[in-house]
Design brief:
single chain; alpha+beta
């Protein structure tokens, strides 16, 4: 009897684990380009992007850096203005990231970041 319970338990564990679907990547893109303006004479590119996900510096910064990295071979100066969900291009950007002299800097709009309101 004890052996039958152990065998049933082990078999149920295999059945439960084997039925799970394989993990898949999300089809959600991290960002979309709103506009792109290039000035080849000045080797400058200005991009406006909309970032998916939470409106946090931790979410926006690596996406802006990725965009800059993909363009820095073609342009000496890259400016990325990042907007988050719910913002329009007429709003002040959530962040402005710049590539100048080989260095990337970020300036975040403190008023645009999601505010947590304490509750009791």
């Amino acid at each position: 009897m004890f052996r039958a319970i152990i065998v049933a338990f082990v078999l149920s564990a295999f059945v439960a684990c084997g039925g799970a679907p394989a993990p898949t990547r999300s089809n959600l893109q991290a960002f979309s380009v709103i506009s792109e303006q290039a000035d080849p004479a000045a080797r400058t590119l200005t991009l406006l992007i909309r970032v998916s996900g939470p409106a946090t510096q931790a979410n926006v910064k690596p996406i802006a850096e990725s965009v800059i990295a993909s363009k820095k071979g073609d342009y000496a100066y890259v400016i990325v203005k990042s907007y988050v969900e719910g913002m329009t291009a007429s709003d002040p950007p959530f962040a402005i990231s710049r590539l100048e002299d080989g260095a990337i800097t970020h300036r975040f709009n403190s008023m645009a970041e999601t505010q947590k309101i304490p509750t009791h």
